[in-house]
Design a protein that fits this description.
- By secondary structure, the protein is an all-alpha fold.
- It contains 18 helices and no strands.
- The two termini are 21 Å apart.
- 52% of the residues are buried.
């Protein structure tokens, strides 16, 4: 017998009560994934804030920094492909813990290298291990939330990437100024071990979680396609080759390929932009960078709320998702005017970059959710990993073919502002192009069958 959807449940029934709001335990799961994502982004953002210190100590130029960034992205891209398979094979509890343990070691390891090549190796190790976060996070969300709530839950945990990026500029320069840049890597890297303790205390999959009521278990699996899956304990693995035969996979892959590099650009180059364009150094960069990521946090949660609100007003899930993503893509475009506005006041440039970064996070909350919209849960981490690899490859190409050559050239002729203008043009158009391609490949985001 089919369990009715939450919108069909009569008021006062256990299923309706479970749908009223997230339970305390589901909030706990969401908070744990949020915490992990915060640590993930805190660890990867540290180097951008230490760039002035490292340039002085190791005599780096823009090309050296770009090469180190490429090492991270190459490893991250390869890691995303493998991480998805590992998470699907080990499950979220063990897979997520293993990834966090290894990336925390990698983050701390930066403090013990003494050459430019050593930083490339450390960044590569960090990249391949950090790749497990999003496949595990998306799979956890698919396990614990019904379809209509996944974008909101994804938006909440994904805002951790902004919180990590907010904490970094408020703490890393201060640590570097007071006790040295090496301690910035050690202290931030050690936070991951705190998360591991909480993860093993609180996390379990719904089918094995004694704290979960039957009503809430039924609500979590109230989507039509989830009912049969909830009763199956073992399912065959899905090959990458088979996943790549679906247009839905390519819709996600191209969406990530075109838009992930924009976020990498913000993360790794925003402090440098503020330094080179406005002369901000050390702790002076903290509040402008933090302001951008505070706006990003709002965008992340808001991006999950927009399609949920559309669905509450009767719009089909696929149409709500697509409409939301189009509106979000339009919100990025004003970044092309960032430098013009910055000539009036630096904070206007910070504001427009912050709005674009917020739109990216809103986009991210929805594009991640398209995977669980279109694929059964047993393939979610693998598809997320494939898309994550594509996003990393896009970042590598942008850095190697555009940023590295372009920034070095314009820096050599003292016109670095032109390089940043070209980058802002790329940022402004990437999401609209991605939306068009995704709409062409998956116009209705219909869930596929892997049987």
């Amino acid at each position: 017998m089919m369990i009715p959807s939450p919108t069909q449940s009569p008021p006062g029934t256990p299923l309706a009560a479970a749908s009223d709001k997230m339970s305390k335990y589901r909030w706990t799961i969401c908070a744990l994934v949020f915490f992990a994502t915060t640590v993930n982004y805190l660890d990867r953002a540290v180097i951008s804030l230490l760039k002035p210190y490292l340039e002085t100590e190791f005599n780096w130029n823009s090309g050296d920094y770009a090469n180190i960034e490429i090492a991270f992205k190459v490893a991250y891209s390869l890691g995303m492909l493998v991480a998805g398979r590992i998470i699907d094979a080990l499950g979220t509890k063990i897979g997520y813990a293993l990834s966090t343990f290894l990336w925390s070691l990698a983050a701390i390891g930066h403090a013990f290298v003494s050459s430019t090549f050593g930083f490339s190796v450390a960044r590569a190790f960090l990249g391949v291990t950090e790749a497990g976060n999003f496949p595990a996070a998306i799979k956890t969300t698919a396990e614990w939330f019904p379809q209509k709530e996944r974008a909101l839950a994804t938006g909440i945990f994904n805002s951790g990437s902004n919180v990590g990026a907010i904490i970094a500029p408020l703490t890393v320069p201060l640590i570097a100024e007071t006790i040295g840049w090496k301690w910035a890597f050690i202290i931030t890297g050690a936070i991951g071990f705190v998360w591991l303790i909480l993860w093993f205390i609180y996390y379990e999959v719904p089918a094995k979680q004694a704290r979960l009521t039957k009503a809430e278990f039924d609500y979590i699996h109230s989507d039509v396609d989830d009912m049969a899956a909830a009763s199956i304990t073992t399912q065959p693995k899905v090959s990458w080759f088979k996943l790549l035969t679906f247009r839905q996979t390519w819709a996600f892959v191209l969406g990530k390929f075109l838009t992930d590099p924009v976020w990498w650009f913000y993360l790794f180059w925003l402090p440098d932009f503020l330094n080179k364009q406005y002369g901000l150094k050390g702790t002076d960069v903290a509040f402008p960078v933090a302001a951008v990521y505070i706006l990003s946090s709002i965008g992340s949660v808001g991006g999950g709320w927009i399609p949920l609100n559309f669905m509450k007003h009767g719009m089909p899930a696929f149409k709500a998702r697509k409409t939301s993503m189009l509106l979000i893509a339009l919100c990025v475009f004003p970044i092309v005017f960032a430098q013009y506005l910055g000539q009036i006041n630096m904070w206007l440039a910070v504001l427009v970059i912050g709005i674009a970064a917020a739109a990216h996070q809103a986009w991210s909350a929805n594009i991640f959710t398209t995977v669980s919209d279109m694929f059964p849960k047993r393939a979610v981490a693998s598809v997320t990993g494939i898309g994550g690899m594509a996003g990393g490859l896009g970042g590598i190409l942008l850095t190697a073919l555009v940023q590295k050559q372009m920034f070095v050239y314009y820096e050599s002729i003292n016109q670095l502002e032109t390089a940043y203008f070209i980058m802002f043009l790329i940022c402004g158009g990437a999401y609209l192009l991605a939306w068009v391609l995704m709409h062409f490949l998956a116009p209705r985001m219909k869930q596929i069958s892997l049987d």
